[in-house]
Amino acid sequence: MSSYDPMSIDKQVLGFCLAAEFFSKVSNIVTRDMFIREMRDVFDTISFSHTKYAKDLTVGELSTLFNDRNPALPDSSRERAQELILSLETGNPDNIELHIDIVNNFWLRDRARQIGEKALSIFTGESEEFGELRQLIDAVEDGRISDKTTYSVVDDDLIELLENHAGPKDFPFEFDLIREKIDGLDRGNLGILFARPEVGKTTFCCFLAASYIRQGFKVTYWANEEPAPKIKLRMIQSYFAITRDDMVRDKVALLERYKTEIAPYLTILDSVGTSMEEVSEYAKLNRPDIMFMDQLDKFRIGGEYNRGDERLKETYVLAREIAKRNDLLVWAVSQASNDAHDRQFIDYSMMDNSKTGKAGEADIIFGIGKTGSSDTANIIRHLCISKNKLNGWHGMINSQIDIDRGVYY
Fold it and tell me: Which among 96, 142, 202, 298 would be 20 to 30 A from 407, CA to CA?
């Protein structure tokens, strides 16, 4: 059976697409890459006509328009294309559901082709894009044709919009000094925390994460900078707001509280060489409410980039997409450049290796400034908000750090 056999599914789909209304229903599913040879040129002509005129096409009109748009086509290719066009049928307009099912099957067949090609490419070592292969397989397994596209229609009415987006923040700040300026963040948001080394950004992350745990949110912390057990201990310490000596003395009583108040809500992941693809898969399978990525800059991504800042920007784009697709909050942790050394107010242009690329993806950016000596007696910290898409407030919040208890106040 040839590709142009009257019973071939790709030929049937082309015929159905002669109807403008039907084409509008499937235009986000059917693309030229799903066809072969002259079929692609015929599909391009159909798409052009519906885009410009939005009217049903007859076979004769398609034939004329095809010749007009392809004047330099070789005679042999033109003859095959015209033979194809003359054999097209729009089908019975009363069988619209059947036609949609045929298009969906056509989509599945094309997905099978893509899966096979990508799997072979990975097998032969020509590609390492496992993420794309996984996405293709997921779309077929789930049976969601819409996963073919990168967009979806927002059809919420006014009441739903107000209920879902005009109410209290999903993740309120507990820290009074911050809450006076910003209520909190929502699912789908990306926040950035950055500071110079040894200023207290990991302590602030633990302090913030502990506040989320107290509110009953599930928190995942990716640790690729400091040892993960050390971060876990600091987070528990921050939750109880006591010194390590106090924890050692009261460890039996605290263990019971840890089991009921912290353990069900906290996951610490020791992360070395982890890819953004792995993070995305984890979020999809485990559904945390909040993820801290410390440090986001060190996660691996696929692709080739001419400059480091281009790779970093793409990393933050992927973090933002993970937050949106999985309906969670992501906090990205990053270093500050030397420009932020010994400064009270630091802004996002002082983030390491990226003046604006990383910042462009964030909803809010916290920098932690510090001046003066580096000894532990210097407890003054300046929380600097240099980007805020949540309520627009920018400025500096003066606070203090209690290193022994792992809290800010």
Answer: 298
| Single pTM value for the model | 0.68
Domain residue ranges of the chain, discontinuous segments joined by +: 9-148, 166-408
pLDDT tens sequence across 298-322: 999 987 788 888 899 999 999 999 9
SS3 state of residue 398: strand
Q: Does domain 9-148 have CATH number 1.10.287?
A: no
- The sign of the torsion formed by the CA atoms of 252, 257, 258, 259 equals positive
pLDDT of 233-290, one tens digit each?
A: 999 999 999 999 999 999 999 999 999 999 999 999 999 999 998 999 899 999 999 9
- In angstroms and rounded to an integer, the radius of gyration of the C-alpha atoms of the chain is 28
Q: What stretches of 143-200 show up as alpha helix (H) in DSSP?
A: 158-165, 176-179
CB-based contact 367:194 (threshold 8 Å): yes
CA–CA dist 359, 191 (Å, integer): 9
Q: Which residues of 376-401 are buried (b: 16+ CB within 10 A; e: fewer)?
A: eeeeebbbbbbbbebeeeeeebebeb
Report whether 88 contacts 11 (CB < 8 A). yes
Parallel, antiparallel, or unpaired: how do β-strands 184-185 and 171-172 relate? antiparallel
DSSP structure class, residue 374 = -
Torsion sign over Cα 267, 272, 278, 280: positive
How many CA within 13 A on the CB side of residue 401? 25
Residues 6+ apart with CB under 8 A from 17: 23, 26, 30, 43, 46, 50
What topology does CATH give the domain 166-408? Rossmann fold (3.40.50)
